[in-house]
Please model this.
Amino acid sequence: MPHPTLTRITGLPSCKKIRQVHSELNANASSIQSTLGDCVNGLLYLTLTPQQYATVSGVPFTVPVHPGPRSVIPENASPAQIAQLKTAYDMMTNVWLEYTNTDKALKQQLLRAVEDIYLRDIKHSMTGYANVSTRRLLGHLYSKYGRITPEALKENGNRMRKSYDMSQPIQTLWVQIQEANDYAAAGGVLYSLRQILDIVYTLLAKTGHHFRYACREWRRVRAAQRTWQQFKNHFTKAYNDSRTYESTANFGYAATNHVFGAETVEYMQDTQEALTNLANAAVADKAFVTQLVENNTKLVAQLEILTAQLTQKKLATQTRKRHKYCWTCGFQDGHDSANCPNPAEGHVKEVVSNKRMGGSKVGKCPK
Model:
């Protein structure tokens, strides 16, 4: 363990002193390698509340249960099955012992760091602290001596939401959030994982174009995969990429900034980023665009053929030869000159199409 001996609390415990001891216990608990939980934070669950642990790890922690005094073996079990059952029993027992013994060791550290008079309220007259967990001892100290005023909690909330300065490493933001969350928990205010992620996301989104793309990508992450560690990894990478880009582009934009001003330079940077994204999209969609052009070419050719056919049919309809001729009405299909319903003055009834005798030329087919 990194802290074999905890910082001694002399006299009346205060919130600051309790938090110092708690921090050391967290480090000790997380240093114990374990397959429980996410296999990354060790046995940190022993010194945090379930709500606090959820903000650290996205993998639920299952507290091991003692498998019983002996392994249960069916009467008809084969030698191989018996061996497997005994192996499983031994593994479950070892995991339970590891969890239980670690909690006992952490508890003894805490009991040595705090004067007994401040813990007697939860000390049993016969068993002492045997059935009291490390987490319960910490909870007692916080509730009894680590009370935080509402004003202090409000100020802590403001510190948590303090704007992020891009000139500082992004790790400073992670520390800012973690310390504020720990302080709030000590005062009985528990932030959920979603609340913490929403707060930090808003701080990063307010920085402008620096995290614009990273924020868009984070919104696409499924809710079940949104953990505090995943969030930090995602935006740390975005921060490093942004710093690398600014370093390589700094020389070219320095002179531009002097001539055109900061707003113009920012617009130029955004434009360059947009063009880069557009180029990447064009490369990725090259095959699709090629196929689309080929399909459009085929459709245009087919449309030209259909248009020509329709034009020919229309022309044939408009110019087809009329079967009858009327001196007054001209060439049409309704009646001949002898049966004209509205004959004009001087109408000639005995005419034919090739001998019109001065009759109308309306409807005549072009030659």
